[in-house]
Amino acid sequence: MFTGIVEELGEVTAVENLGDASRFRLRGPVVTDGARHGDSIAVNGVCLTVVDHEGDEFTADVMAETLKRSSLGALTTGSRVNLERPTAVGARLGGHIVQGHVDGTGEILERTPSEHWEIVKISLPAGLARYVVEKGSITVDGISLTVVDAGADHFTVSLIPTTLALTTLGVKQPGDPVNLEVDVIAKYVERLLTAGRADGSGQEAGR
């Protein structure tokens, strides 16, 4: 489980094509501190398993399904990536509950800078629009963000200088893909309401 608070901006140092998968080697001095085989690390919001770890680098295998459903397939040697280790039990939940399970990808549509922050407009797949609401939470490339405006096919977020300086959203431009994970609580609520209507139990209490 993650919180969407990026710990460091890492770098892809190698990509090996394995046919039906890819093996990534990534550099991240903070997230590799104490890392062991089998540990989880979120890379641009995708929960990956550490295969090997040496110095300040680790390797992770990414299967074809993950490459297809996320933007990791577009990474090359030298790409910068957002890195986060799982949150520890009892630690502060600085962002929101993030699983590291990408729901789909969006695209940077516009960037509107101002003196102290920047508004970024991102496309939203039709199947995810119902989970995104104004002032709700969404994860973009592993970053926990608050939705400023939610449309039928897009949403906007406001980025503070720290986010611009310490994450990939500081350098991504219109046309670049981003990984999206919607609030899992919204999906559970929808599932419960749908199941209730299907079995006839979704009636108001007291009736």
TrEMBL record:
Pathway linked to the protein: Cofactor biosynthesis; riboflavin biosynthesis; riboflavin from 2-hydroxy-3-oxobutyl phosphate and 5-amino-6-(D-ribitylamino)uracil: step 2/2
InterPro entries: ATP_synth_asu-like_sf, Lumazine-bd, Lumazine-bd_dom, Riboflavin_synthase-like_b-brl
Residue ranges constituting the Lumazine-binding domain according to the UniProt record: 1-96, 97-193
Residues in Lumazine-binding repeats: 1-96, 97-193
Entries under PROSITE patterns matching the protein: LUMAZINE_BIND (PS51177)
Keyword terms of this UniProt record: Repeat, Riboflavin biosynthesis, Transferase
Source taxon at top rank: Bacteria
Swiss-Prot/TrEMBL catalytic activity: 2 6,7-dimethyl-8-(1-D-ribityl)lumazine + H(+) = 5-amino-6-(D-ribitylamino)uracil + riboflavin
The protein's assembly and partners: Homotrimer.
Name by which UniProt lists this protein: Riboflavin synthase
Organism lineage: Bacteria, Bacillati, Actinomycetota, Actinomycetes, Kitasatosporales
